Prior knowledge:
The complex is a heterodimer.
Chain A: H1 2-14, H2 23-29, H3 31-53, H4 67-70, H5 77-84, H6 86-106, H7 108-119, H8 123-134, H9 141-152, H10 157-164, H11 179-204, H12 208-216, H13 221-246, H14 248-252, H15 255-261, H16 267-270, H17 273-284, H18 288-315
Helix pairs in contact in A: 5-18, 6-11, 6-17, 7-11, 8-11, 9-15, 11-13, 13-18, 17-18
Chain B: H1 2-10, H2 14-41, H3 45-50, H4 63-69, H5 72-103, H6 111-120, H7 128-137, H8 155-166, H9 171-178, H10 183-194, H11 196-211, H12 215-220, H13 229-237, H14 243-254, H15 262-294
Helix pairs in contact in B: 2-15, 4-15, 5-8, 5-11, 5-13, 9-10, 11-15, 13-15
Amino acid sequence: MADSVTARTPKRSLRTRAPKQSLGKTILQYKYFYLMVLPVLIWYALFSYAPMYGVTLAFKSFNYSKGILGSPWIGLENFQTLLTDPDFRRAFWNTVIISLMKLVTHFPMPIILAIVLYEFSRTKMKRFFQTILTFPHFISWVVLSGIIINILSKDGIYNQIIMLFGGDPNSPLVDESAFRPVLYITHVWREIGWDSIIYLAALAGINPELFEAAEVDGANRFRRLLNIAWPGLKSTVAVLLILQVGQLLTQGSSFEQIFNLYSSPVYSVADTIDTYIYRTSFTIGSDFGYMTAVGVVKSIISLILLWAANSFAKKMGEEGLY
Amino acid sequence: MTDTTVKKRKKWSVFDIVAFVALGLLALVTFFPFYNVLIISVAKFEAISKSDFYIFPLSFDLSAYKLLLQDMKFWSSILNSVIVTVVGVLFSMTISVAGAYALSKRGMPGRNIMLSLILFTMFFNGGLIPFYLVVKDLGFVNNILVMIIPAGLNTFYLIIMKNYFNTIPESLEESAKLDGANDLYILYKIIIPISAPFMATFALFYAVERWNEWWYALIFISDAAKAPLQIYLRETLITSNSLLSQMAQTMAEQEQTGKVYTPALQMAAIVVSSIPIIVVYPFLQKHFNKGIMVGSIKG
């Protein structure tokens, strides 16, 4: 402590800038930067923070002509309705199950892919594989769903293969037991390559001398993986895991994917909070106040999950997000 | 460099072989659906109905494409998407580059508060209904700008850009400042030109996002003339609501000779609408590894 102070003192005296400047002067000095950041701040105020204020709607009975501000307060009535709404319960559990299963089935995949790509020594082929595996990420869920529907249709390639082996043709997209696995598989298909990039970046950041030293010491591939690559990856894995748990209910239950693939026969296993809110608000036209309450419950659970994941990571000795 | 490649070409370790097979299978599974799209789009109806197993292109027929290109709604949706993409990228890049650059200045008073407010939006939002009401009150319903302005900022990209700007040595700006340049001028004349490849990557990311945009259109645009390409594709591919898919269905019902196979038409729509992405993909691929590496999550 004392050492660092004495070490720092001469440096400070070398600085040309004035040591203490009034806040007003500093702000003036940064005036162009405030000008640059202003549009971004306005954007967040309008499209993120104004809707957050709109959350008050959850405690109101929404009246179209009176708007958010003028609608009458009804306290917790919307939240009470929610507890007895079977559609909400179904959507809630579907969201939890689909998101958790997506996390379990998808999360390790890009890590494994990154390690395999990293250890694979043929540089040109590595790049070729990466190019192909990241491609689906850039295609919209609308188009991918069109492709998936075609493949799984009555005379699509999936049923042609089934019939080739003497099976009965079926359609997983309207089958309650097969719909969710379709979601998990197509999610991995779209994102595995893209998500592996960040891990490859972390692996590329490991000092290659460590690997060389390990090789000299006679460590085999598995040892090197366990003692050098994994410690280098661990913090990235932790940060991404926290991020994904925090966004479990929003990203994990991907509205775009489910909305484009599902249909009424599979609502019982596929209707999530997001699709429930969209469907009932914009097609059936249910109470906006109530639907806001549904959204609020989702956001709060997300925040709790994030906090829990972050504390867990800290307990495990990782840095955490905050 | 040539040394190591020559050395490596000689020996394939057991691991390399196993990895090659595994990666090859994965790549095949990833790629096959797209290949399937292409061969179905050029399939003749008779060829499909005759063969049970359609893996190789057994016929070549462009009539699905001809029919598609005659559909005026297809063209108007493309035009809308082109406008949204071009104007949208300009808007997104202008505000996010300027914002990220300012937020990278460590000494700016209030910077940490601004950053926290921005990061918080990644984890908490008002939900769909309040968002819908606010955007509606701002006059974005049935307005093509809804796909440009409310859709126009990606927090994740903003943070990566900010981290990237932090890596540019400050001495560069200081020398320009001594010459009397102000910060806006420095950003425009020095910072942006030296980071052109990085800027290009994010412009392409935003371009892909805008080209693929459909969620804002689904919620805010009901006027068919203002619908973007992805909504047109959704109607053609998923809900079979478009004039085109109805046309193809009637043709199939009439059982006339030389009719167009409905899936061929749908797959042709996919192929044509994906051309821009396939064209920019090599550029994306070249830069995105670097882009992501520079600005990993924290910083």
